[in-house]
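Known limitations

Files may contain more than one protein. Parsers should not assume a single record per file. Below, a two-record file is shown to illustrate correct handling: read the sequence, read the C-alpha cell line, then continue until end of file.
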Amino acid sequence: MNHKQTFPEGFLWGGATAANQVEGGWNEGGKGISVSDCARAHFDTDVTNYKAHNAVTSQDIEAALATDDEVYYPKRHGSDFYHHYKEDIRLFAEMGFKVYRLSIAWSRIFPNGDDETPNEEGLKFYDDVFDELHKYGIEPLVTMSHYEPPLNLVLNYKGWYSREVIGFFTRYVETICTRYKDKVKYWLTFNEVDSMIRHPYTTGGLIEDRFPGQNFEEVIFQAMHHQFVASAHATRICHEMIPGSLVGCMLTKLTYYPYTCKPEDVLKSQQTMRGTYCYSDTQVFGEYPAYLLSRFKNNGITIRKEDGDDEIMKSHPVDFVSFSYYNSSCAAEDTSNLNVTSGNTINAIKNPYLKASDWGWQIDPTGLRISMVDLYDRYRKPLFIVENGLGAADVVNEGGTIDDQYRIDYLREHMKAILDAIEEDGVDCLGYTSWGCIDLVSESTKQMSKRYGYIYVDCDDYGNGTYNRMKKKSFYWYKKVIQTNGLSLYSDDEF
C-alpha cells in the first residue's frame, strides 16, 4: 500500500512509567507503604521463572516491614523521579512528547488507604508534576492504580477481596479528580486489570496464605469484581467532575497463535485469548461475558454482589481501550515436547518463526497489528497503546554514549505496524506511549539492568550509582519520529 507515511494529526506520542517503578521517595513526603515497597527482588532466580519472582507470603511481608533496605526492595528507590522530575520532564519535552503516562501512588495520597483525609504533601507533589508537564505542553495520562495498593489494606482488610476497599478507592478517586480536574483529561482506572489472576499480590493485595481453606481462584475473582465496580464508580466520578474527560480500561494484550492448524490448537488459542478478553469485555460492555459466567459455574466459583453493582457497571463503561503489547505467544492442546519461553507476566510456547529478547520475550511487530485489529473489531472504541518496548542490557561506551540500535529496530517495526493498522485496517488509535521511556525497575524481575528507556539512569540492580541521566541513541531517534509524525520511520537516515 502507498503509505501517506505520517500518523493522524493530533496523534499523541509519548512515553509511560509507573510510580512504583520510577518514583522512589518511598518514605518521604508523608507517603505510606505500598505492596510494591515490600516486593522483594530475587537476583539469583532465573529471569524466565516469573512465578518465583512474584511469589509472596505473609512471612515475606513481615521481613520487608522489618527493614529499610533498598537493595533487595528496589522499588523503594526506583529511578528517583521524586527528586528528578523536573529534569526528566525537560528531557521528555526535548523529545517532543505530546503525552506522558504516569501513575499516582495511592499511598502517597492516602498513606494507609483508609485515612479520612488525604496527605497534602502528596497532593502537592503531583500538582507540581502536572504543572511541569503543562509548562511544556505535555498532556498527562494518569493511571489511578498501578500495582501499588497501600499495604495497610492488605494487612487489615485482605486487599481487594474486602468490599470496604471500593469505598476507600472511591474516596481516593474523588480526591484526585477534585484536585486535578483542571490538569488531567485522560485517565486509566486499573493497570492491566487482568493481571490479578497472574500476580494477585501486586494488583489486588491478595496473599494466598491469608485465605486458608478458601478457593483462591474464587478469592481472586471476588477481588476482581470489586475492582470492576470501583472502576465503574471511578469512570462516573471522572465524567461528573471533569467535563470532557476520557476514561480508559487497561489490559495486558496477550496475543496467542495456534501452534499448528490442528483444530484443537486453534480452539486452545481462542480459549486462551478469552482468558484476557473477559476483563476488558466486562469494562467495555458493562457486564460479565457469558463465557466467563460459564467458567464460574463450571468451576464452582460464586461471586458475591450487592444491589446496584450490575447497574453501576452497565451505566459507566469506559470511553477507550488501552493496552500493553510486548510479544506474542503460541497455544497448543498438547504441550509435551514443545519449547517454552517467557513473556509479559507469562510463560508460553515458543514460536519457531520469531526472534526473542535477552529475557526470552518474542519479538513480533505483526502481532501488534493483529492485536489492534482484534481489539477494535471487538469493541469499536478508540485504542491507546500505553505500553510497548524492548527490555535490554544497555552498555555505556567510553565517552558516555549508549548505542541501543536494537531498541530502535524493535520500536520502528512496531510503529510501522501501528500505522498499518490505522491506515489499512481502519483502526482508531489515540496515541502511543512506549514503556519505560526512562529506565526504571522492571516489574517482572525487579531489575534495573533490564532497561527500556530512551534515557539511561546510572543505577544498577542493587541501587548503586549516581542516578545521573544520559541520552541514548534512541532518544534522538524518537525525537525525530515525533517531529516528523512518523515520516522518519521510512527514511534511510543514519538510524
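...continuing to the second record:
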Amino acid sequence: MTRLRIYLALSLVLAVLAGVFAAWCATHYFSPAAAEPSLHRIIHHELDLSAEQRARVAEIEARYTAQRQAREREMRAANTRLAAAIEADHQLDDNVRAAIHDFHHAMGELQLETIRYVLDVREILDASQREHFDATVTASLTDQDW
C-alpha cells in the first residue's frame, strides 16, 4: 500500500509539472503576444490613424506594456515558487496549490488587461477603422484567417 501511495504522489507531481510546462509554453509561444505584431501592424499601418489617434494609441500601448510586463513577472515568480514547493515536498500541498493559484490569477489578470487594451484602442477609432479593427480582433479570437 505504501508503494501505491508513492506512485500516486509521483504521478501527481509529474502531472503538475506537465501542467506548469504547458502553461509556460502557452505564455511564451502561443500567448496573445504572438498575435500582437499583427494587431500592431493593423493599428499602425492599415488604419490610417490621425496624429491625435497615434498619440493616444502610444499612451494606451505604453500603459499596457507596463501592465503586461508586471503580470509576466508575477507569472514567472509564481512558477519559481511552484518549483521550490514541489522540490521541497514532492506533493500537492498548500504551497503548491498557492503557487498554481497565483500563476492562474496573474494569467487571468493579463487576459483582462489585454482586453482592456483592445477596447481602449477601439474607442479612439472612427467607424470605418473600427470595422477593420473589429474584424481583426474577432478573427484572432476565433482563429480565423485575417
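Parsers that stop after the first record will miss the second one. For reference, the second record is described as follows. The longest helix spans residues 51-89.
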